[in-house]
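Page header: ASSEMBLY MODEL / four components / 760 residues total.
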Amino acid sequence: MTTGRVEAFSDGVIAIIITIMVLELRAPHDVTLAGLRPLLPVFGSYVMSYVYIGIYWSNHHHLLHAAQHVTGKCLWANLHLLFWLSLVPFTTAWMGENHFATWPVALYGSVLLLSGVAYNILVRALLASPGNELLANALGSDLKGKISIVVYLVAIPLAFVSPWLSLALYIVVAITWLIPDRRIERNFGE
Amino acid sequence: MTTGRVEAFSDGVIAIIITIMVLELRAPHDVTLAGLRPLLPVFGSYVMSYVYIGIYWSNHHHLLHAAQHVTGKCLWANLHLLFWLSLVPFTTAWMGENHFATWPVALYGSVLLLSGVAYNILVRALLASPGNELLANALGSDLKGKISIVVYLVAIPLAFVSPWLSLALYIVVAITWLIPDRRIERNFGE
Amino acid sequence: MTTGRVEAFSDGVIAIIITIMVLELRAPHDVTLAGLRPLLPVFGSYVMSYVYIGIYWSNHHHLLHAAQHVTGKCLWANLHLLFWLSLVPFTTAWMGENHFATWPVALYGSVLLLSGVAYNILVRALLASPGNELLANALGSDLKGKISIVVYLVAIPLAFVSPWLSLALYIVVAITWLIPDRRIERNFGE
Amino acid sequence: MTTGRVEAFSDGVIAIIITIMVLELRAPHDVTLAGLRPLLPVFGSYVMSYVYIGIYWSNHHHLLHAAQHVTGKCLWANLHLLFWLSLVPFTTAWMGENHFATWPVALYGSVLLLSGVAYNILVRALLASPGNELLANALGSDLKGKISIVVYLVAIPLAFVSPWLSLALYIVVAITWLIPDRRIERNFGE
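Prediction written out in full:
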């Protein structure tokens, strides 16, 4: 089975996740610039989640581009990843509307952690599929994915010391991921 | 006519169904873990519906992958299936927000039942299309689909005895379906 | 330019239109069957609009399948059609929530009328594109489209006599369209 | 890497952006024509944003059709463009619900300006990708894009004199863009 429809469905789900987050930005009745100020934390958390979902889309794009075959197990590993990503709008809203309070920031990180684990499971399911031997060569050790998970595991409890420290770590992870997976691109790109 | 655009449109509708259910998870104002507790039944019903919609997407994917041709009748059998699936977010919300009360649980099962029947109608419409002879061989008797419908017919009235019994049966059906249709995969997969 | 991306984008918009209508079906707090009764007109108008949007998707599918080339003018004729269809969720909600009152029923028909006209403009834009000569043969006179427009023109003022008469006419038009455009299917289908 | 999935994902996001704007058109309880009057500014701003998003989709379609290759940098330039477009429903709602007041009109223009800049960045990222030499010939100087940015820069401060002047300029820009990029079409179209 080819990867075409898995990509199309994932694109649909990710496109909707990225877009419905904006519904949390409700137009204020105040028509001055001051009316926008209460929206700033909501906007800030939207930007962070947009970047994170963008990273997942971009890496997912590279990953499935390199893969040649998907099995039934891969379909469910993919649905499992999309499940955790689908919770991002909720954790983004809870965090943004409550000005980055402790529990919302910890939950936000937990969903990032579980999404990271789910991505790792998807990579392994694709590697285990027959016909994806080239992918194995291209992917290498996935060091960046493993480090991210460790950073999340540090950042989540840190929210109970200071949520801003956790946020700083989430931003650091995002920045490291903004660089696309050059190993795949080097091997498969034109 | 090829199956490409039917898949694309179905992917779109299913992606949106799966994603708008998450809008029912409204961010609470309480920033403690206790603030999430009232959301637990909503979350639980979201998980169940996510799995069900995922099953439909996965089976739909296998089914249309095996089919070669769609007629106008197939388009409408597909739209009919999507209609019942489109009601899942409503029944999920009614059930989750009312802590799995009798009528919501019975209605939830009824929409599952009608979706199951609609899927069966779609299978038959595809089998009746010229050029899909290979699909007939691959599909076999669709025993699992028929058993599911019988289980729903038992589970719906059972909600008036105890909604938890019905839920247990819905979960049993979901688990049996989580295993993809190996008959098709065996015959058509790589 | 090929029709691929026009189809994909239209599929996306139509899939969202069909799905967000269901958001109007808000889960009641009443957990008895009586709690669903006030939703009946909302549900009824949803069913009608679902069928109409399904018809447009199905005909659009047949039309673009038969077309080979799209020009910039076709893109805008298509966006113009999608604009009127995008108003269907609004008119559906206004009509359903107000139990099929006169003005909502008249406005609902007006949006159907303008969608019908927009579809006709799209057909003509496609026919005028170079390389679509086969489409011209396949489409014939589009009698059904012209009759629909006449029926809408009768049904809209009739809402001020009785909205139920208008609704009956909308349903009659829908039934005539449920039969896919066999002329195209006969010529281009497998 | 080919452009297929970038187009599909962008189509999804743009389709959702265009469609969720309609959710701002909430069905009034008043069933007379007078009940629709308060919706007129919301409707007007919806029409303008629909046309703008349509222009972006149409130009994006032409642009990626002409491009042959996308790099990781192009993916992010594209996500950056989609980010600003995703804010259009918010600025549209703020402007429409507040009858085109000064700050909302200025913010609306600012998001248009940033979208215009983001589109320009995407064009440059595509031109810098290896294998897109033909695109460079086809695109020419992008005079229209540069003029639009200048007009936005004039229109935004003008909102503090009169928001209607700004709106007039936004409409002028939209009209100039409604004409598709004939340079690309001439070179790559059939």
